[in-house]
């Protein structure tokens, strides 16, 4: 399309003035908060001035190694200060940080590295051998070699690199239930938007503290760490779930958002009660409320005196599309209806891309500034996901008359029983209301007559609970054809989970076979 005669076409300088990048905004934040603490990891810490200087030095290491704008820098390490330094260094020079998942199998790791083809790899020393087994050599090992490389750099200012807002900032890998992980490319624009959306909708203060205990290769820590650094707050880095270290942090600092996820909440509550902890004020807690038994929602919000973040977002979208509501303190709600976030457009569509009417299930499609820039090196996945100029999340929702949204289930995880569609979450939500249930997952099982039928795996707090009791929790609340046909009781620790705490249904299916 050509511009109409007389239309105004801004010169490039105008576009430049209206654009920025994460790296440049961090430099501004560091200048404004130079003496404030940015990162804390045990006895180690970095002020904003120190973090800015060390990430500058790391950026120079990358430039001296021949990296250009758009090249990839792979990170394979557990949570540590150096992870953040390298990611910031890449952002400053327009390189893309490839945040590798150290929990992956050797085959998955090899796939992710080969997919992204990094020009430079930084790793912890324990990951040098796995990388070599995958066919790649580590360029810089965190520890003595890393510090020596920074100390050897001339402390001259970095050259200007013409990075743009749509350039890639980082690649985060999704944890699909089938096939190899996909690399979601997050742009500078998307990460800045995610920071603004969270701060605007939750009232996050500028001097916030965030506890980064979940893996920094995951959006749950990566997004919020980068967002907090733009506001001049501080990050307490913990290497994985450690209830005592988390409690130490909330007793020492006022924390606006404490991440708690399914699978760790019950253990955290036990530690909290044992210590009779006295946390400083907390703004909100939690994630993925749909996966948390309702009695635990009531207990954890009461103990921490903070509402639960009723989220529905993704690696690809950030907090949107539906993370704009909170579950009040002390409530065990039967309904977990969600509120659409500001700063995004959404549609609920059928298989043909047509909008469904209120009350009917449809796949959620979203547009907005927080949306990622596609799956790296995967044209087929991008063509499927971005149909019609909308990102199709693969999640089914139902819109209520008041505009709220109810999560139904994943599009691709559906039980087809006798020609009827059954979404597992429809069954799970009724079982999880019962206080005797610790957690539950519904999976499909092949059936000679019906094709597939729903089967329940449940962790219980009351050993007297019977399969008939569990089925009775659903009877009269859902159609009879949706009632579970089997109930298997399982220990909480035996429920297989992904990095984000989601129960992996495909593994439970394999156990049935």
Can you give me a brief rundown of this structure?
With 513 residues, the protein is of the alpha/beta class.
Helix/strand layout:
Layout (H helix, E strand, L loop, with lengths): L11 H6 L4 H11 L4 E5 L2 E4 H17 L7 E5 L4 H13 L2 E4 L6 H11 L3 E4 L4 H6 L6 E2 L2 H8 L16 E6 L9 E5 H15 L6 E4 L6 H12 L3 E4 L5 H10 L2 E4 L6 H11 L6 E4 L8 H11 L3 E2 L16 E2 L17 E5 L11 E7 L11 H7 L5 E9 L5 E6 L4 E3 L2 E3 L1 H8 L5 E11 L3 E10 L6 H8 L11 E4 L15 H8 L1
Parallel strand pairs: 1-10, 3-4, 3-5, 4-7, 5-6, 9-10, 11-12, 22-23
Antiparallel strand pairs: 1-2, 7-8, 13-14, 15-16, 16-17, 17-18, 19-20, 21-22
What does this structure look like?
- There is one protein chain.
- The mean pLDDT is about 95.
- The chain has helices at about 10-15, 20-30, 50-65, 80-95, 105-115, 130-135, 145-150, 190-200, 220-230, 245-250, 265-275, 295-305, 380-385, 425-430, 465-475, 505-510; strands at about 35-40, 45, 70-75, 95-100, 120-125, 140, 170-175, 185, 210, 235, 255-260, 280-285, 310, 325, 345-350, 360-365, 390-400, 405-410, 415, 420, 435-445, 450-460, 485-490.
- The protein is built from 16 helices and 23 strands.
- The radius of gyration is 24 Å and the shape is globular.
- Helix 8 (about 190-200) crosses helix 9 and helix 11 (about 265-275) runs parallel beside helix 12.
- It starts with 11 loop residues before the first helix and ends with a helix.
- The protein is α/β, with parallel strands linked by helices and about 525 residues long.
- The strands form seven sheets. It has a six-stranded mixed sheet, sandwiched between helices.
- The longest helix is centred in the first third of the chain and has 17 residues, at about 50-65.
- Among the domains are: about 20-240, Rossmann fold (3-Layer(aba) Sandwich), CATH 3.40.50.12780; about 415-510, GMP Synthetase, Chain A, domain 3, CATH 3.30.300.30.
């Amino acid at each position: 399309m050509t511009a109409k005669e007389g239309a105004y076409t801004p010169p490039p300088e105008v576009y430049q003035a209206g654009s920025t990048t994460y790296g440049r905004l961090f430099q501004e934040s560091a200048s404004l908060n130079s003496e404030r603490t940015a990162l804390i990891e045990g006895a180690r810490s970095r002020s904003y001035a120190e973090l800015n200087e060390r990430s500058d030095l790391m950026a120079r290491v990358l430039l001296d190694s021949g990296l250009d704008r758009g090249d990839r820098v792979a990170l394979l390490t557990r949570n540590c200060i150096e992870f953040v330094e390298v990611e910031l260094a890449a952002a400053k020079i327009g390189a893309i940080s490839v945040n590798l998942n150290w929990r992956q199998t050797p085959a998955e790791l090899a796939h992710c590295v080969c997919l992204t083809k990094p020009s430079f790899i930084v790793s912890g020393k324990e990951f040098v051998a796995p990388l070599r087994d995958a066919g790649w050599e580590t360029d810089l090992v965190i520890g003595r070699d890393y510090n020596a490389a920074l100390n050897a750099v001339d402390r001259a200012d970095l050259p200007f690199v013409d990075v743009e807002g749509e350039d890639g900032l980082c690649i985060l890998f999704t944890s699909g239930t089938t096939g190899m992980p996909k690399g979601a490319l997050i742009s500078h624009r998307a990460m800045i938007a995610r920071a603004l959306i969270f701060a605007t909708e939750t009232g996050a203060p500028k001097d916030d503290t965030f506890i980064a205990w979940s893996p920094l290769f995951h959006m749950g820590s990566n997004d919020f760490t980068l967002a907090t650094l733009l506001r001049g707050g501080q990050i307490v880095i913990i290497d994985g779930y450690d209830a005592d270290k988390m409690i130490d942090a909330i007793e020492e600092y006022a924390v606006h958002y404490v991440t708690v996820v399914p699978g760790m909440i019950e253990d955290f509550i036990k530690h909290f009660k044992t210590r009779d902890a006295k946390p400083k004020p907390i703004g909100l807690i939690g994630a993925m409320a749909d996966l948390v038994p309702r009695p635990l929602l009531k207990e954890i919000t009461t103990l921490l005196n903070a509402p639960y973040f009723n989220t529905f977002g993704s690696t690809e979208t950030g907090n949107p599309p539906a993370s704009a509501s909170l579950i009040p303190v002390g409530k065990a709600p039967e309904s977990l209806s969600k509120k659409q976030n500001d700063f995004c457009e959404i549609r609920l569509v059928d298989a043909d891309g047509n909008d469904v009417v209120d009350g009917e299930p449809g796949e959620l499609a979203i547009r907005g500034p927080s949306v990622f820039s596609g799956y790296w090196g995967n044209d087929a996945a991008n063509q499927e996901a971005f149909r019609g100029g909308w990102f199709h999340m693969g999640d089914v929702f139902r819109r209520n008359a008041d505009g709220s949204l109810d999560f139904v289930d994943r599009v691709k995880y559906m039980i087809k029983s006798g020609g009827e569609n059954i979404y597992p979450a429809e069954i799970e939500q009724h079982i999880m209301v019962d206080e005797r249930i610790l957690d539950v997952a519904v999976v499909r099982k092949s059936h000679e007559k019906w094709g597939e039928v729903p089967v329940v795996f449940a962790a219980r707090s009351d050993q007297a609970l019977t399969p008939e009791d569990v089925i009775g929790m659903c009877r009269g609340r859902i159609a009879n054809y949706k009632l579970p046909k089997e109930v298997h009781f399982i220990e909480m620790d035996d429920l297989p989970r992904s990095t984000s705490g989601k129960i992996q249904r495909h593994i439970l299916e394999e156990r049935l076979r």
